[in-house]
UniProtKB/TrEMBL annotation:
Keywords: Cytoplasm, FAD, Flavoprotein, Heme biosynthesis, Oxidoreductase. Its cofactor is FAD. Its main location: cytoplasm. Pfam families: Amino_oxidase (PF01593). GO terms for biological process: heme biosynthetic process. PANTHER family: PROTOPORPHYRINOGEN OXIDASE. It comes from the Bacteria. GO terms for cellular component: cytoplasm. This is Coproporphyrinogen III oxidase. It catalyses: coproporphyrinogen III + 3 O2 = coproporphyrin III + 3 H2O2. Pathway: Porphyrin-containing compound metabolism; protoheme biosynthesis.
Amino acid sequence: MADGIKGEMVDVRDRTARPRRFVVVGGGISGLVAAWRLTQKHGPSAEVLVLESSPLVGGKLRVGNVGDVTVDLGAESVLARRPEAVELFSELGLDEDVVHPRAASASVLSRDKLYPLPPGTVMGVPVDRTRLSALAGILDLDEVARAGQERTTEALRLTEDIDVASWVTFRMGRAVVDRLVEPLLGGVYAGNADRLSLQATIPQLWQRARAGRPLLEGTQPPPSAPARPVFAGLRGGVGRLPLVLAEKLEEAGGEIRTGVTVRGLARTANGWRLTTGPANGPEYIEADGVVLAVPAAPAARLLSAEVPQAAQKLAGIETASVAVIAAAVPRAQLEGLTGTGLLIPPIEKRQIKAATFSSNKWRWVSDEKPEDNLIVRLSLGRAREESTLQRDDADLTELALAELRELIGRDVRPAETQVVRWGGALPQYEVGHLDRVHRIREAVAGVPGLAVCGAVFDGVGIPACIAAAARAAHDLDVSLRVSA
Ligand SMILES: Cc1cc2nc3c(=O)[nH]c(=O)nc-3n(C[C@H](O)[C@H](O)[C@H](O)COP(=O)(O)OP(=O)(O)OC[C@H]3O[C@@H](n4cnc5c(N)ncnc54)[C@H](O)[C@@H]3O)c2cc1C
């Protein structure tokens, strides 16, 4: 495949001599899926090139090693109730490696005590009247009663988006937000229920709110309903997914260049010119079609010249930075510890927001080195609370471990730890997000040969990213056909 040429521009898109060239910017799961779909669709009639700024593909999917045990250092599971991720596992021949978390439950901290996460909730919001008693403990008796007396009135059909906290507080009382919604929503978005969009983050409840239906309904499934696992993972880590995908993509003729940051994107008479390389020695890559699969901030920078309306909207999207500390803890220190982990809402005034007992949660992790260490993952960082993460690795680790010791009452002294910082990792789906996304896509669709995808669009979870990437590949195709 032709390379970018230092200091001068070479048009490699002579359609009589060469196949079409598609360039995908960003080698996270979104970019790799977009590239994979383009490769499948066009076969040898197109060149597909992925440009990734870091040395490895995968973005927020990454496996690492702590205490001689392989662990996920970013995302660690996929929602199995959506089809996209499990279908991709299958498509890549990974069926044999698909695993599900052990059935044990996680706990949530409330007023300094741990309680099992209650059933019958959607993102922490109670939706099942028959299971309200399971909230006792996490909520006090008055708070449970208030939740059960949901304030409903037919006149209250939501007509426009609202933050999750306002809606749930109005209906069920603030305690439901502080003690149930925040720990779950915080786990996904590292965000704040007072700012996050009901429409974008809990669409099932948004639909009810629009229809004027109550949040609480008798939704307990009949006992005969087969229990389908909600989450899935991969033996060896979900971080393997981009590595396997990259391999298949290259086998199918796609090209991946890592360590290449795209700094500029400009339209030419026939397509696009991407600028890479240092400012004093730029290199240019020509393309017929471009998919941007990068986070909001770089996407805004790259679109600023050609699609300023989209760039401006992307630049306004806030992000949350988070950190994961993976710890290999001598087995004796955690002997008998049950459950898959803990969730800690902001109201409890701790810095860690979650602890995952990976060796309890995933059999493949405990099988790796059963005689030795157990793996615990600690998560820190919430939107607008960057100061916690400004500590150095040693301080951050000590802070997180001190809190863990207090919460589980064990003297945890890990044999090895690893800190991974994910700066600006989680886009905040604030009120009006879906409208913002619609306008960004609309602006991009007005420009031939360009499409966008990534965690900022239709959901931060892996299945949503896969769906948005497939859509971008399709949109690019349509756009080129229309403009041909
Ligand atoms: C700690 C953590 C845990 C998570 N856990 C889960 C989970 O368990 N399950 C789940 O479903 N989701 C989880 N998520 C969310 C999910 O992992 C991400 O939303 C998803 O992986 C984002 O993929 P992406 O490809 O859109 O973006 P990214 O993974 O951010 O990939 C974008 C890529 O673009 C590259 N890039 C940026 N700018 C440029 C440029 N100018 N030129 C070239 N390349 C560039 C970046 O280096 C990066 O590799 C988690 C996220 C985090 C941070």
